[in-house]
Amino acid sequence: MQELTITRHNALIDPLLSIWSWQIPVYLFLGGLVAGIMIISGYFVLQGQYKKNVFSCFYLPHIALVLLSGGMGALFLDLEHKLYFWRLFTTFQVTAPMSWGSWLLMIVYPALWVNTLIRIPERYQGKVPIFDRWSAALNARPVLIKNIGIANMLLGTLLGMYTGVLLSSFGARPLWNSAMLWMLFLVSGLSAAAAFVHLITTDEYERELLAKADNAFLTLELFVFGGFITGLLTNSRVHKDAVHLLLDGPFAPYFWVLVIGMGVLLPLAIQLLAVNHKIKHTALAPLLVLAGGLALRFVIVFAGQFSRWS
């Protein structure tokens, strides 16, 4: 039997500086962030937070639309045949993750847009009368509003899972070929979204709630990392070599320092002190979580491109 090995690159600086490498990690990060925002926004809708004059319930769906469009723009830049992207929406291939993702996004956009109509900020009321009428019709039917919240939570979960499934479906890249990758990206997206709301909200209740939620997500993320690494270490020789790219290989400094240390452990420690009122809430922790989530996608995508069957 032919021995399975990993082709390692001796010089790491080239891929880290190559311009073409940034689109997919950015797309995956923004997709995961939007997924987390949809779940959190849907939860707030179910809790009736939209009735209060708070920042996040007004603007989270709007921000998510902008971020999702930015992610789609990054993906478009990565396409080799850009003029033919529309063909993704002319067919549905059951076995193709990109096909599932394309049609999922076709549903996510209107779900986010309908969410924006639940509560229109006062400064924008009267600008587009038909939107005001639709918003009034929704508020006259509380059951519809609850269904919108549930739909956003479900679609957000599917979108967050998809960002990991998209990579794990590539069997030619052993590092990505893990059943835990979708869970890792989903939890990371939730953590990033919680940190984002914690960063921007002006409501004390939301800030405290999201800081506590982010602590739970960061703790869960550590366990998912353990499952991801263990799964690869107990797999075939090529999968073991792949995960060693992160553990003690050329990507180890970025993984341990940027992703685990500065992206999970340090903000977790800061936010634990904050929610226990040992220190004041600070923007440093959520900013580190967001940076760590982005670094995770870059490290996984770059290291995955160096792991291969040979």
Structure report:
The chain is an all-alpha fold and 310 residues long. It has one domain (13-306): Formate dehydrogenase/DMSO reductase domain (Formate dehydrogenase/DMSO reductase fold), CATH 1.20.1630.10. The protein is 71% helix and 0% strand. It contains 11 helices and no strands. α7 (181-200) runs antiparallel to α8 (204-233).
Short description:
The chain has 310 residues and is mostly helical. It contains eleven helices and no strands.
Which helices and strands, and how do they pair?
Blueprint: H1 13-17, H2 23-46, H3 55-78, H4 97-116, H5 129-139, H6 142-168, H7 181-200, H8 204-233, H9 237-247, H10 252-275, H11 284-306
Helix pairs in contact: 2-3, 2-6, 2-7, 2-11, 3-4, 4-6, 6-7, 7-8, 7-11, 8-10, 9-10, 10-11
Outline, from the CA principal axes? globular
The portion of residues assigned to helices is: over 70%
What is the number of strand segments? Answer: 0
Strand content: under 5%
What is the helix/strand order? HHHHHHHHHHH
Report how far the terminal alpha carbons are from each other. Answer: 12 Å
Cα gyration radius (Å)? 21 Å
Structural class by sheet pairing and helices: mainly alpha
Question: What about the largest sheet?
Answer: none
Query: Number of helical segments?
Result: 11
Mean pLDDT: 86
The CATH topology label is Formate dehydrogenase/DMSO reductase fold
CATH structural class: Mainly Alpha
Spell out the CATH superfamily. Formate dehydrogenase/DMSO reductase domain
